[in-house]
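A student in our group prepared the protein record below, which I am reviewing. This is what I was given:
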Amino acid sequence: MKTTLNKLEQNQKARIVSIKGLGIVHRRLLDMGLVKGAMIEVKKVAPLGDPIEVKIKGYDLSLRKKEAANITVDVV
C-alpha cells in the first residue's frame, strides 16, 4: 500500500518509493540516506506529529512533518 511517510504510525516499516522536492532540501534528504528502495521504520511520532523519528540504514533520524510528506513509501 503506497502512502507518504508522514502518515505512518509508530513501529510501521516501509520501503521508500520516491522523494519529491527540489533544491537543497531534496539534496539533504538524499545525503541522509533517504533514497529509493531503502527500508525505513517509524520509531516515534511527536504528539502533534512533528517531528517524526525514523530509523534508516542503522541510524536514527528526525524529520519534519513537511519533509516526510514528500517521501512516498510502500508499507511492508
User: Anything to note?
Assistant: The first strand starts at residue 2 and ends at 4. The chain has one domain: 2-75. The chain has a mean pLDDT of 91. The longest helix spans residues 23-31.
